Amino acid sequence: MISNREQVTAMILTAKVRKALKWSQVADAIGQSKEWTTAACLGQMTLTKAQADVVGELFDLNDEATAWLQIAPYKGSLPTAVPTDPLIYRLYELVNVYGSTIKELIHEEFGDGIMSAIDFSMDIQREEDPKGDRVHMVMSGKFLPYKTY
Amino acid sequence: MISNREQVTAMILTAKVRKALKWSQVADAIGQSKEWTTAACLGQMTLTKAQADVVGELFDLNDEATAWLQIAPYKGSLPTAVPTDPLIYRLYELVNVYGSTIKELIHEEFGDGIMSAIDFSMDIQREEDPKGDRVHMVMSGKFLPYKTY
Amino acid sequence: MISNREQVTAMILTAKVRKALKWSQVADAIGQSKEWTTAACLGQMTLTKAQADVVGELFDLNDEATAWLQIAPYKGSLPTAVPTDPLIYRLYELVNVYGSTIKELIHEEFGDGIMSAIDFSMDIQREEDPKGDRVHMVMSGKFLPYKTY
Amino acid sequence: MISNREQVTAMILTAKVRKALKWSQVADAIGQSKEWTTAACLGQMTLTKAQADVVGELFDLNDEATAWLQIAPYKGSLPTAVPTDPLIYRLYELVNVYGSTIKELIHEEFGDGIMSAIDFSMDIQREEDPKGDRVHMVMSGKFLPYKTY
Amino acid sequence: MISNREQVTAMILTAKVRKALKWSQVADAIGQSKEWTTAACLGQMTLTKAQADVVGELFDLNDEATAWLQIAPYKGSLPTAVPTDPLIYRLYELVNVYGSTIKELIHEEFGDGIMSAIDFSMDIQREEDPKGDRVHMVMSGKFLPYKTY
Amino acid sequence: MISNREQVTAMILTAKVRKALKWSQVADAIGQSKEWTTAACLGQMTLTKAQADVVGELFDLNDEATAWLQIAPYKGSLPTAVPTDPLIYRLYELVNVYGSTIKELIHEEFGDGIMSAIDFSMDIQREEDPKGDRVHMVMSGKFLPYKTY
Amino acid sequence: MISNREQVTAMILTAKVRKALKWSQVADAIGQSKEWTTAACLGQMTLTKAQADVVGELFDLNDEATAWLQIAPYKGSLPTAVPTDPLIYRLYELVNVYGSTIKELIHEEFGDGIMSAIDFSMDIQREEDPKGDRVHMVMSGKFLPYKTY
Amino acid sequence: MISNREQVTAMILTAKVRKALKWSQVADAIGQSKEWTTAACLGQMTLTKAQADVVGELFDLNDEATAWLQIAPYKGSLPTAVPTDPLIYRLYELVNVYGSTIKELIHEEFGDGIMSAIDFSMDIQREEDPKGDRVHMVMSGKFLPYKTY
Amino acid sequence: MISNREQVTAMILTAKVRKALKWSQVADAIGQSKEWTTAACLGQMTLTKAQADVVGELFDLNDEATAWLQIAPYKGSLPTAVPTDPLIYRLYELVNVYGSTIKELIHEEFGDGIMSAIDFSMDIQREEDPKGDRVHMVMSGKFLPYKTY
Amino acid sequence: MISNREQVTAMILTAKVRKALKWSQVADAIGQSKEWTTAACLGQMTLTKAQADVVGELFDLNDEATAWLQIAPYKGSLPTAVPTDPLIYRLYELVNVYGSTIKELIHEEFGDGIMSAIDFSMDIQREEDPKGDRVHMVMSGKFLPYKTY
């Protein structure tokens, strides 16, 4: 009996290790970016029936698990409010150190409002650099203004 | 008597409102990006004497405040671990929803390690879009691998 | 010296008690709804220069305070993550008890996505009822769908 | 052995996915609003014997599970005090940003007291809009005044 | 300049020590119970103009403070979620140890619903006892049932 | 294998639903008040052998479970420091809103000390009222004075 | 204007440093143990008029401060729930490591109940030891049994 | 499969209830104080092979469990930072109320340093008293001074 | 089915107790330092195939577990933000007491930046001392400077 | 009026910026290591009269501040349990990632016990390295064994 999406995520991770799959292969198979595809497989996005069928086959999921992939999940991928994993903590640290800066610069350019985390996309690439390669992340989110009413 | 950098940040914010300065003007004056400059003025970076003198003049700071700008500050710009401000929360939400995804993809590309939040730069631009302009953020951080020893 | 919006909110609250003003009067004076107007005066919204001038005059604010009203504030009006005030706690309790319900019903109607808290408006009215009058709150927020990319 | 209502909620969610039921169908079957019905199925409300029998049949529950539906549950549907799911967080954000505003306006209209979260009903509808459909939520709660004694 | 009720509470406590007043004297002066009166003076209840004038005179408050007594306050009298003071902690402990018991017994008698903390009164008396006098607290709150809709 | 009292509480709750027992019946069977009896069955009190045998029979407990009922349990019946269940939260709210009041009045009557939560009893009754029946709770705890030494 | 006991504690600490007083001298002056006396001066106990007068004179307190010493204070002397100071943390660690042990042994000896923290006294002495002197703490608290009712 | 010491503690507690053993009997069997023995059985101390064999026999532990008793455990016996159990909370309250006092008196007697919680022993006895027997706890910890370097 | 690295860590700890292995033996077997090897076995580092095969054989792991050792794990080895185990707490205490000192001295020597926790190695040795042997820990991390951009 | 050590730390930090002193100069002046000296000036250690006089002169402290330097302070230099400053967080991360490793290795070498954080010294040096200089930290703490009693 599967009663939440996290169980499906665990099944996917188990199968991924066993079958030594790569996220980019999964992304190719369903024809979406590797960023969206990974987030979806990790329980953060909702798949269409066609996408879920492909994912189900790649990871040997049963029908019940495949059905759960098509249900909007309870999102949030961190076990604690402040993440302990060093890689993810660095992202949290950037929000902490640069949060007020990003707020100031978006307001200076656009006025009061936010960058959407829903109408949003992300792209992660290797940036070659003789002093050591870099992670290059591009985030693009629609600006949503506060309006008077 | 100034005993911490936060007091200097408050003086800068007060002067910025009174003199209606823009962060981009400050950045031009000290010859750095608007992202680094804003972070520095908000108490997250250390300025050189030359930079501090320019900032001090722009914001009418006294000598004591200008000296504090040249001291490495206790960093972190958020009043609570989970930020309440909607704009900054969206960044936190991205870390929460996409954190495990970013971790998986960086590891898939680079192996175990992190994206540095120190050897790091950021660029924020308006991305024009007929369906509504977007915030375009580029982050670049050096990949640092874990090694055996 | 004013270094954050909370100081201006405190000045407004002080003047409001002293002058016995009503929020509906302030709303009429700036020509916006009482909901937006109150939120703005309590430090959650950004005012235009014209609006700020009216508010400044009503509450006897000085120029510095009036300038701050036109700056996008750090938002969030609660002193603790779980509010202690009984009226505000009831709202939190509704999110806690009905949160999963609202999520299910919005997803059933719209698919995966959220109700915007930015492209949002609210209206609070007295609902007369022989068994005891009721508070009638209407909230309207744009649905924002998650999309694949 | 079932020892709490959360286990019954998990059974309902599992069956709902497997049988591809809609909350509105369940609501029709027991003759209540979709809002109350969903909250009840998610473990927040107590059902009568008749309602529990219908729900039990729809979700293939055994007698023990159906009995638990008739017991007043320990309420609260969120795994953390500040919800991580973006849809539910937006509701929390509204309480945070507008909480003090709602408090002020209810007190201005009714005097000191609260909007009941018990003598309460809610209605969620799609609000068609050429600029993008909206979520329209109506909440109605009895005003309960504080009295002297 | 007074910008919140807590400042008035501090003024009352200061004056109470200086003038060696008793809460029961204050209660007599405004003609209410000592429980409601004390809660009101400690910033948890709203006073009428007549009551506020009496309290203002007893504690030598200025007009601004007396005006604040007539504004519905942000309630909650504890500095931390779990109180450290031994007397108040014992009350918290009772909620912790007996909370599930009280819930069970109210539901057994009344069905699903709550005891109101708003339509509520309290009486505290000395209960003489040869083995040591006791604190006798009576709490009476209206039962509010959850209903279907 | 039973390794803590919480497992016994779960067994009791399961049996109570299955056998549709009432707490008052259990109380009659062991000859104690319904308040103490319910607290004991919910894992907050220690039973004598005789009491445990009666409870064990009523709820079909095995010998190991019956033995655990006679062991002083780790007490505390709430899953979180601030309870989410609306009925129990109202009790917490009373401590929060009236905590400082109760402290002041007990000190005014008795001097410095506490109301014992151990040498304590409680009685919960329905209080009939034409405007809606009320929950009537009486708490009686021995006053314990702080003394110098 | 003094509005809480913590201000008086600060005044005492300031004077103690300035006048280089020892707690044992204060204890001798008021004729109580050094443990009770120190706790009282640090804002955890209530003094009689006679005791307060002596303390007031020793620490050069004004009448208002001396009056506050006679009011039952809001107790609790730690700034955080888990203390950061190494000496006080060791005490917390003892509760953490030995807490379940002490509970088991008191229950084995006395049955269910607690050691009172109110009807309590403490004595701290130097214990000479050739391998390094030791801190010798004796705590004595009345056992209070839970009883059925 | 046993993967941590807590599982062994649960096995011991289960057997202790089933076999109605007393901690003092266990202490006699291994020839240590009842305080150290109980702490060891509750997973806070490391046993020698000889001690573990005795404990293993008394509680019918298998070889794997007996081996775990000889591994230094991850210590800490409380499920939450602030304990909810009334007996253990009283100890926490003593740290909270008397923590600063103990700190002052140890520093006054010994200078800056701590009482060791490692080079430490404890003794708990019944103290007969006509007004009600008392718990008598003696704690002895080596004083460790901070030194300059 | 293994769905996370923590399960593999539990398997390793279980086998280590059963087979009475030492970390230094494991380190020798894979030809790395005991510090890195232990951290890797405890789920904090990623092993190569060759290393994982050796570890798998030493601890009798199945293929699935051995595969998980080669996946970058979610790091962080403490169950709570502030560790309760006395040995690990002492490390936390050092960060708390000396954190600001280390920050000052690194900045004084190197300017603004950090000591890397990734490009990092550690060595723990016994330091013989007639007054009692000491733990000697050497930490070496690359200095990473903040730069302007 | 100075009522705690933190005020003296603030005075020292203010003077240090104004006079552009280095910690190593202060250490030389009082003849102690730069590590102990900095910790002492930052409010974590107690100074002798001679040391305090030197520090007082260097930082232009008045007599009251100099007296406070000789009082054992309430220790702990971080504003939050999990530090936000990137440099200090890296130390916390090391405790989190390597905490269980250090515990295992110390126990393997010494048996059950701890590394003292009191009988402790620390040395921080620049380690020259062609791939980038490193921070070299040596910590030495006495091993304290748990013993039976």
TrEMBL record, chains A, B, C, D, E, F, G, H, I, J:
InterPro entries, sorted: Cyanase, Cyanate_lyase_C, Cyanate_lyase_C_sf, CYNS_N, Lambda_DNA-bd_dom_sf
Residue positions of the active site: R90, E93, S116
Coiled coil: none
Protein keywords: Lyase
CDD domains in alphabetical order: Cyanase_C
Catalytic activity reported: cyanate + hydrogencarbonate + 3 H(+) = NH4(+) + 2 CO2
Secreted as UniProt keyword: no
EC assignment: 4.2.1.104
Domain Cyanate lyase C-terminal residue range list: 77-149
Enzyme class, broadest EC rank: lyase
Listed GO MF terms: cyanate hydratase activity
Pfam family, one: CYNS_N
Family named by the database record: Belongs to the cyanase family.
Record's function text: Catalyzes the reaction of cyanate with bicarbonate to produce ammonia and carbon dioxide.
Protein name according to UniProt: Cyanate hydratase
Organism in which the protein naturally occurs: Microbulbifer salipaludis
Lineage of origin: Bacteria, Pseudomonadati, Pseudomonadota, Gammaproteobacteria, Cellvibrionales
